[in-house]
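Re-run requested by the PI after the first attempt was lost when the workstation crashed. Everything re-entered from the original request form. Ligand of interest: G3I.
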Amino acid sequence: MGLAAAIGVMPVAAKPFASPPEDSLDRLAKAAGLIGFGSCIGSTKSTSVSGSFDDAGVRAIHQSECGLLVSSNEMKWPVLRPDAASFAFERADRIVAWGEQAGMKIRGHTLLWHRADRMPKWLVNYDFGTRPGHEAERLLREHITTVCGHYGSRLFTWDVVNETIDPATGKLRETVFTRHLGPAVIEIAYHAARAAAPSAVLVYNDYMTWTEASARHCDGVLELLASLKRAHLPVGQLGVQSHIGDGRCGEVDGDMRFDDAAQRRYRAFLDAVVAMDYRLAITELDVSEDGTPADIAARDAMLADLTRRYLEFMLSYRQLDYVLAWGMVDHHSWLQTRGPRADGMLKRPSLYDPNYAPKPMRTAIAQAFRTAKRG
Ligand code: G3I
């Protein structure tokens, strides 16, 4: 039984999705000067966002609203690499082919999720032999070259390195790759990606946010971006994941207020990023809701209000290229699998509800695009 069914909210899969009686979010984003709007979708049947591709109602929403697409899990090592010798492209290929047919531009996520807990077990336990540095570099280059080569110019951008800064220390996370290559792992990844995907925008993607608790994370990301520039690495953009709201993303608590002090802090961070000549993208927008009321109208209003204020803030950067949501529909959100609400109700972190109806968050995004004042 799916999660929505388990808690008594049955998605009305048979009900045809009716497009909102106004412009799509992608068209509104383009009118605001962005490349577009989109979302992730995932292919596994499960209670998480990864099951969204198997849901006709979700696919219809993507087709109606989105010009951009990213596969939520299918290009990650644990799915693509069953072992050190093989590649399993089938699940990712289905999503890419569908997105192309629907006329969407497609992102790649991610060539190196640089954290030990996101690597397949075989990689963590891999025998790197008598020349471990050599073997680690060979393995990483082979992965990136093969995956980028498989898709060629069909993907317009790649999250080459994802989440390599440890929010607790502000330093590079330690993995099998840093054990054998040291910090050069990052450089190797970007050089390999540039060689294999010459026209793709190469991104560093992370979940730093505006809270004081995230200050060390922001500092670490700035140091990393500065070091990438010093090394003349071909990195064009910071992916600002944007798992916002009053919850926990990774090890860092968020907050719902996004008050003046928070905006000043975050602006200082983003100003420093763009001063180094990086572009920006919102790559994984959703809103978590710890501590929000059970009342759905009140809750939706709070989540929508934060979304609108956050987007207005981000859209003030002329360097912002696009906005991607991390899922379009509540009942497929990954947040449903990350600890239930205290009252057991379904979380409402996305733009559409389990009946595939647009929510105030969708209206908030549309409004932010319509009124955008680009810097
Ligand atoms: O597919 C298997 C299923 O067969 C199995 O029964 C089930 C048991 O746990 O696991 C399923 O795999 C899960 C997969 O999602 C698909 O549902 C994994 O355990 C689970 O770890 C995985 O979570 C994903 C997570 O990244 C880790 O890859 C989330 O869906 C996905 O939304 C999340 O996305 C990340 C971004 O890539 C990076 N930024 C943060 C964001 C949220 O954590």
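Saved to the shared folder this time. The CA atoms of residues 161 and 184 lie 13 Å apart.
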